[in-house]
Amino acid sequence: MKVLSLSEDRSVVTIGPGNDWDAVYSFLQPYDLTTVGARLGLVGVSGHLLGGGMTYLSNEHGFSSTSVVEYECVLANGTIISATSTSHPDLHWSLRSGGNSFALITAFHMRTLPTGPIYAGFGTYDSSQTANWITTVHSQALYGDADTAGGVEATATWNPSAGPDDLSYTSYLFYHGDEAQPAILANWTGALLTPTNPQPLNRTTVAAFSRSLYGGVPQNLGARTRFAVLGVSATRGGEAAVAAVHDGFFDAARAQLAGVRGVMAGLVALPVGKRFVEANGGAQHVTGAEAGQAPWIWIIQTYTWSDAADDAVVEGFAERWAGEMGARLEAEGWAEGGLYLNDAERWQNVFASYGEGNLRKLKEVREEYDPEMVFTRLMPGGWKVADA
């Protein structure tokens, strides 16, 4: 389950499904190699890849799953097969963002990349920079793939325990190249936003950077968490759409969640450009996204709280707010990009957002490879194609 090995020419790494990305990056680092894995090292390999997988390298290489050249699979009837672009290509297509409805994956074979020089780090910003944060997120979506070596994850966090200055912002910045101050990230390091920390970018490795992002994780162990996602067009809605989501979310959270014990609520912005869509194969990809739809921004709503007695309050708020804002985005013509499986909530119909034709094909593939619905009924967790 935790096998890690390289092909003879080191172009492909074989990864057992029990690994996390920290183990993968650490294994590849001595060979000066990496692969297109998760931003956070403690994320598990299997769930990340079966949901597509966003990464700091996505502008250049698309979803993490786009780099999977072969899935070793055990079908529900016990048959062992290899799914590639030429052997069981329909299953290979489905597994790239189709979840766990089809087979048990016993190994992922992924293309490797030369590590090369990497500069990465993070910037922190206070609430006085809200307007510039919105502008910078929107600008990154419009122009961020002009240099595909750059990658950004931007967060906004409401923490009522912080007092009057209860909003803060963070950018996680990554550059796959030998530039300490890359122009593509300049808006985050002083051109538009002024970080409160003096030196956002430093020379590092994929393994070290993905591990450094654990910072807030230990303090949240044991906390209750929820995620949901919306897709916002960067062209039709512009800054107004980003501002509507930002302001609407935090105004509602302050009004309705202030009494929840240990609560923090946030937004994570993942800009998606044309180069990302093209790297995935465009409309041929299981998600059905076309380059003409880009750029858009996946905006993930995040919630943590401490007391099970507040579950109904937070979960009710999350579903209600995402539904209302999703309806507004649709009505304004600002919705785009469908739903990203790995950050969706259980009441969001992810596979329906892939388009009617792709959903129909996913159901046909599921029927072919698991006609008795073993993985639908007996494998817990995740979104099931049969239920879409």
TrEMBL record:
SUPFAM superfamilies: FAD-binding/transporter-associated domain-like (SSF56176). Belongs to the oxygen-dependent FAD-linked oxidoreductase family. Keywords: FAD, Flavoprotein, Oxidoreductase. The keyword Metal-binding does not apply. Pfam families: FAD_binding_4 (PF01565). Coiled coil: none annotated. This is Putative fad binding domain-containing protein. Residues 1-115 form the FAD-binding PCMH-type domain. The keyword Transferase does not apply. It comes from the Eukaryota. PANTHER family: BINDING OXIDOREDUCTASE, PUTATIVE (AFU_ORTHOLOGUE AFUA_1G17690)-RELATED, FAD-BINDING PCMH-TYPE DOMAIN-CONTAINING PROTEIN-RELATED. One of its GO terms (molecular function) is FAD binding. InterPro entries: FAD-bd_PCMH (IPR016166), FAD-bd_PCMH-like_sf (IPR036318), FAD-bd_PCMH_sub2 (IPR016169), FAD-linked_Oxidoreductase (IPR050416), Oxid_FAD_bind_N (IPR006094).
